Amino acid sequence: MFDIPYKRIRGGVSAPREFFTSAVSCGIKNPKSDRLDLGLIFSERECTSHGMFTSNRIKAAPVRITQSAMRATPIQAIIANSGNANACTGPEGMRDARTMAKRAAKLLKLKQRQVGVCSTGVIGLPMPMQRIEPKIDSLVEALAPKSGGDVARAIITSDTHEKEFAISYNFEGQKIRIGGCAKGAGMINPNMATMLCFITTDAMIPQDCLAKGVDHAVQNTFNRISIDGDTSTNDTVLVMANGAAQNKPFRRNSKACKVFFHALEFVMNRLAKAIVRDGERVTKFITLNVQGARTQNDAKKIAQAVVNSPLVKCSWNGEDPNWGRIIHAVGYSGASVKEELVDIYFDKKIACEGGLKANTNPDVLRNIVRKKEFSITVNLNLGNAEYHMYTSDLSPEYVDFNRSEYAYWMQARKDGFID
Amino acid sequence: MFDIPYKRIRGGVSAPREFFTSAVSCGIKNPKSDRLDLGLIFSERECTSHGMFTSNRIKAAPVRITQSAMRATPIQAIIANSGNANACTGPEGMRDARTMAKRAAKLLKLKQRQVGVCSTGVIGLPMPMQRIEPKIDSLVEALAPKSGGDVARAIITSDTHEKEFAISYNFEGQKIRIGGCAKGAGMINPNMATMLCFITTDAMIPQDCLAKGVDHAVQNTFNRISIDGDTSTNDTVLVMANGAAQNKPFRRNSKACKVFFHALEFVMNRLAKAIVRDGERVTKFITLNVQGARTQNDAKKIAQAVVNSPLVKCSWNGEDPNWGRIIHAVGYSGASVKEELVDIYFDKKIACEGGLKANTNPDVLRNIVRKKEFSITVNLNLGNAEYHMYTSDLSPEYVDFNRSEYAYWMQARKDGFID
Q1: pTM for the predicted model, two decimal places
Q2: Domain extent for B349
């Protein structure tokens, strides 16, 4: 789109200038563990910011607090924990989320509403504030440049590793940096997921312009991934721009602005794909392209039906180039379809042509689904609309992994932090 | 509703008077197997009949043929096979489905359009007509009373056992019999499934009246079951009424008619539940009740979101009384929800009260989900609308079972019945 090279840089959310980060261990999920579970991102400079939040009607307390705060003022700090989602926790949960923001704000000399607060983890348990609150002081004291990786580690739950990514680029003599970190793993579906993503940038960009760019980038990235079709109560994307790059502020619709949006989407796309690749017990990464639909809405319906079909996902796990299950999901998607026009490809090899088995050697198709990453293209041959999504297989191990949190609850009871 | 006792009787679809059945083995899926895979149901008397068909836009050839035939005339015979779905088979598949109906019709001295034809099994393979066609003669010759069980056995695929059920009842001095058989197993979701169900009755009931009763009964039974959220290309419910009971024909809206509808729904409900209980690698049978919704549509949206959530279904498999995952599915269902009013019960024990963890001892809840069958009730406390569904857990074994049909395809290739 733009012929501007991105340079990959280190530091995740601390890569952009004048962002400071820290993380500590509170033992939120397990009092005996010393893994990092509370992180902080802070800019001394005032920021413009924008947030996008779960579409689930059951919203965790921190989501409600942060969403409402950001309607009033931009944030310039984020405090985030893993191990407890602070969801379905009632007025007490609201008080706890406010306490986290307030305590951090006081120490950072900000107003409470200038601090975003995020939580991810178990639903329905009260926050162990007796373990969290005392650690906020040391969290603020520990703030340092270049330690973004600690925040990335502090927010993961069943993820197998932290996910961060940062780039810089030059435009009209000015260097802009964008960094981000994210967590995902389960409950991953469009309209965001059990997903947290924090993006920082040193670009100077007006509030309304940033909001537009973030909306667009999220639609094309985090809203196009699906692991298990579940949409969580806590999904949040927060973006802060502190202007430390001292660029000429982007004007709306300027080329500088478009270049920035493109770079922002590039960073989000990398993080979104990393979430799918690190999905719970995932063995395959699939790019699903729907082409030739009458409308984009039809293309989207088909993509969602295919990526959410357990039978289709099972066949990917079994390395079975099963186009029959794909076309049957296409058929029940609710989109306009003419069976006799449907083509289905594995990578570039045709498996189904005009609704019928194509002549491609099955071994060729089999070798494609044996790869760790491949693409599937469904062409309806009805129009020009397209949509794509990133998704994974469904493994017996995923089911096994998600069978029971009961043991955890029993431990929590024994530890005395629930009745 | 009506104080009329139903008597359970033997014979499935052959229980009602003057219905004849037979089944033979063609080796449709596997030429070396001698299991029954082609069945026939026949009434010498003319019938009234009604069919309901898959909502999938990709429709198998037999679905198209039968749907269009029944628009013109009632059927009085059904020929049905398992082992091959005759779906995604193009003009050749249409020819094959027509051939099956035509050949049976000729031998039964009927018109082709008086014979319904149904198939279930693998998608995308041509029908092995060279093995099916020669067997239709012996199929017709074998017609006998009281052999409904053979048809029930001939239509199953990955089901572990045949499913049939029949009752009789007396009303105003007349005895009416209703019998049915069904197959299910995978791809089970509302708007029918990879499901065949044949119902016979000796009631004399006008065509329009029968259609109305069947529609209503299917909405309340087969459209309320979900195993894996997939809706297949072949789902069909066919009902034939031959009038052999020689009752006074039911008048529309008469009590006799309502009593018959109730009995019809009773039979379908038993078969629908039997399909869920025999779902692929299912270990639990769950009745999900949604109550207190603003509209029935909202109640339905919530029921569908909960029964299709992989995370909820995994937790049932793990015998984890996890109401957090249930409320999160409630939240993303798209229905009107007030978090602070939501109550969730396992059987009659409250697990979540006003959106928060209730005080019920977790061991009590745990013992409920340990049972093979239990109910979950979600009360939104917003209105009076209700909806219920029957569903199952999702097991690692289900995923494993559905990983690959590739070995089967390779065998089919080796056997020379595909390229």
Answers
A1: 0.87
A2: 285-394
